[in-house]
Fold this protein.
Amino acid sequence: MASMNIETLKKLNIKQAEKLEALEASLALQAFLPDVFDNGSVKVKVRSKRDQYTININGKDYDSKELPSVYWKHLKSKLVRKT
């Protein structure tokens, strides 16, 4: 029974860490683009050529190097490569 509780706590800890990372990424993006959440949501598209990434946020293009590193790291962790 105790091991099940420990496993549940581990899963909750992972979820909490993921939520905190998402919050930190959102705050960094909002600091970078203060009006980014004005419409309540953010539309993000990522294009790549080799290891060069262009991120379109609400219709405006940014190079990945321009974005706050915490946001880019979070966004990159969510990318799925098309094959």
